[in-house]
Amino acid sequence: MANDTLIHSTDPAQQMDRLLAIMRALRDPKTGCPWDIDQTFATIAPYTIEEAYEVADAIERADMDDLRGELGDLLFQSVFHAQMADDAGHFNFSDVARTMSDKMVARHPHVFGDESNAKSPEQQTADWEKIKAAERAGRDETRTLDGVAIGLPALLRAEKLQKRAARVGFDWPDVKFVIDKISEEAAEVVEARDTLSHEELTEEVGDLLFVMANLARHLNVNPEDALRAANAKFTRRFEGVEDLLAARGKTPADSDLEEMDALWDAVKAAEKNTKS
């Protein structure tokens, strides 16, 4: 691994081999890193999820240098899981890569087979879902909601569950019914706040969030993107409030809600003026 030619190689296969060799060395029971040796699928999974989000963050910031590094971190997660599987005799990285290649070839008969590629994106999406449904059936996943990963972020999983149900006709025919349901669930949250246990209140808030995800789907809005944008807007505006407070020689801890709310309105108005 110390070979300079290999270290500086621009050949993808050589660099992949180098990364796999590094992972094997880290997991070596006798000479490896104690931390890496001690890890399991369960302990590494949170890091895998975190790295995927950091890839998305680099993309959103259009930081290509950072994206290169984050994609490497995410690749390393796949290598790590594959090495743990190899150690346990389940499968290895070659099996992972071959499975992915086979899947992509099977799901793109219009590219790798004899089907015409003269399809609209909408038709391709429909065909893709048919192929995935056949794959699920082959795994004996026959129920409508089978295969929607439990580990997905809750908002994303809600959207996917609702899309699956909608494919078999379990869906409101018009967005107005969704809005009515939001009003109903919001009223139940208000009632639960005063009369129910915390566990029951949590359930009612969950129901409300689930219907909000459904509203986004009906409006063709990605709920994850919408909430991410709202988070970014809140962060930007609150930092604007902090800047205005700093100009007065104060911090949020030195202020109160009335002052900060007024400054929030000022920041919001300034943003609107900038856009107009």
From TrEMBL:
Stored Gene3D superfamilies: MazG-like
Keyword tags: Hydrolase
Membrane-spanning parts: none
Source superkingdom: Bacteria
Enzyme superclass (EC): hydrolase
SUPFAM superfamilies (alphabetical): all-alpha NTP pyrophosphatases (SSF101386)
Annotated GO MF terms: ATP diphosphatase activity
Domain NTP pyrophosphohydrolase MazG-like, residue spans: 39-112, 180-238
Catalysed transformations (reactions): ATP + H2O = AMP + diphosphate + H(+)
EC number, UniProt record: 3.6.1.8
Keyword Hydrolase attached: yes
Keyword Cell membrane carried by entry: no
A biological process term (GO) from this entry: UTP catabolic process
Family the UniProt entry places it in: Belongs to the nucleoside triphosphate pyrophosphohydrolase family.
Name of the protein in its database record: Nucleoside triphosphate pyrophosphohydrolase
Source organism of the structure: Octadecabacter ascidiaceicola
Gene: mazG
